[in-house]
Fold:
Amino acid sequence: MAAHYQIAGATSAAISASVESGVRSGALPAGTALPAVRALAADLAVSPATVARAYQELRQRGLVVTAGRHGTRVRPRPPVAGRRSALLPPPPPGVRDLALGQPDPRLLPPLGPHLAALAAQVGPPTGYEGGTVLPAFAETARERLAADGVPADDLTVTGGALDGIERLLAAHLRPGDAVAVEDPGWANLLDLVAALGLRPIGVPVDDDGPTEAGVAAALTLGARALVVTSRAQNPTGAALSAERAGRLRALLAGREDLLVIEDDHAAELARVPLRPLAGATPAWAFVRSVSKPFGPDLRLAVVAGDEATVARVAGRLRVGAGWVSTVLQRLVLALWSDPAVAERVTRAGESYERRRAGLLAELADRGVPARGRSGINVWVPVLDETSVVTALRDAGWAVAPGGLYRIGAGPAVRLTVSTLDEADLAPLADAVARAVRPGAAASFST
Ligand SMILES: Cc1ncc(COP(=O)(O)O)c(C=O)c1O
Structure:
């Protein structure tokens, strides 16, 4: 525990506010163990039930996590901080950042020409009455999804994939409900699940996607939703194979009690075919973000699904934020419709493919097992994350510790390959080999 921060309060609300304030100010950093319920209750002269209520409230909002004998701790990335980039501290000068999981900005299409064309085309300002999914946008999105085998008669638009997933989970689940997530899986999704007060059930992932046994176990444990990454799974690179998709479809067929959410964030960048689960269950949604191929700052995703699910998301959006700006929709439509942009996205996908495959080959040459069937990340199992992250940082490479991405899966580190050059691959693989086998490196160099 951070000895210098005194949690205060005479009610559960005051105690949880005091912890929140400590988290917000940094006095209670991520991982800090909070006092045991009875100890804090004695300290504050309140009943243990009062402290337990405060901790439960903090848990439901994703600020703390309680893990058996480890007690209650501040979550790695509690939802009271500002920018996303604050979630991983920037590397020191001179250290290459392979931790961010972002597309290479040099490979994103420049928006300038399309913004300029848009400026020339837009008519009079649009008022509230025009706030909707533009018919031309919906039509093109529908065609693009249908080409990949996703029935998209019903669709809506959200502010990115995670916004769509949040709205889908909120539309079908209540705090305390269980949601099956890939393990290892996308850290931001784990953060979101915690912040919504949902219970994550980890489903193991191999290169073909979530395992059948893992999904079956999650169903037995009462999962009300399952989130599957179609391709370029973050962090392992898994891509749902035709066979796995077929087996999962059979397993899930007709489940009335389960919402299946597919996250196809690789979208047009993907170099492997889409094997959708869409429609296997009565309640389903397929989320395709434009972040990775066209730029994260566009903040737009298409959400297709069954009629009732899409109506819930669109209806809730309508009574809240309203709609995703038609200006943004027009811009994305222009990007989708430009063959030069499509060509650029194809080249970007090929380039990520070369970098990832190149790094995997260099690691294999050095006897370092690693995963990365698709996408922009390589996942390297390690014995000790902290020592590998530190050794790589000392060697000039910042990588992400696997702890952010896993529930029960083994330790590993994630390397984002998107900004690597050909000449980086061998020195990086050397550094990784030394970091994962420090003993071997020491004897080699003496
Ligand atoms: C698994 C996964 N889904 C979706 C996204 C994109 O999300 P958004 O559309 O919210 O930018 C990412 C980006 O890193 C991701 O890794």
